[in-house]
Amino acid sequence: MSRYATIPLFLFFLLLPIRVEAETVIFPFFIDFPLLKTLVLKRNFNGPDQSALVLDQNNKCQRIVLSDPTFREKDKQISFETGLYARMGAFVEPECILPIEYTGRVSVLLRPAIDESWVLTFSPKDLTLYEDHGNPLHVNPDISPLMSRASRPLKEV
């Protein structure tokens, strides 16, 4: 008799609507900056003089190279700064027409996160270009997609 009494009870709990909620949980974690720099250098900056070739198209007419990365904490986020060499021109076979070259530094504010597969990732939040003397440059917002592409190697360590 007790076996038959549990079947309706089991069906009752099985069919009972249960409200389930999911929410994002934010928890503090600490990042060892020398270890982070070592990981980023090993994975992304494996060119000569700790450089990373981000873009190289049309016989070096469009080229972006990052070098000498540094990390520090800023407002509970990570400030990533690196040397930047950029060359942009219009490629008309076989020449690069009106190439513009820039050498300076770029600073990117990164928000660290751990994705659903427990991989540490970074989302770029703010980007500032600096000239050689350290003065910030005013950048046209149209360059944002290109800089997002340039920061892609940093998204996952």
Task: Report what the structure shows.
- The chain is an alpha+beta fold and 157 residues long.
- The chain is built from three helices and five strands.
- The protein has helices at 2-15, 33-43, 144-150; strands at 51-57, 62-74, 77-92, 95-114, 120-130.
- A five-stranded antiparallel β-sheet has the order 1-2-3-4-5.
- The longest helix is centred in the N-terminal third of the chain and has 14 residues, at 2-15.
- The chain starts with a helix and ends in a 7-residue tail after the last helix.
- The model has no long low-confidence stretch (mean pLDDT 78).
Question: What keyword list fits this structure?
Answer:
5 strands; single chain; elongated
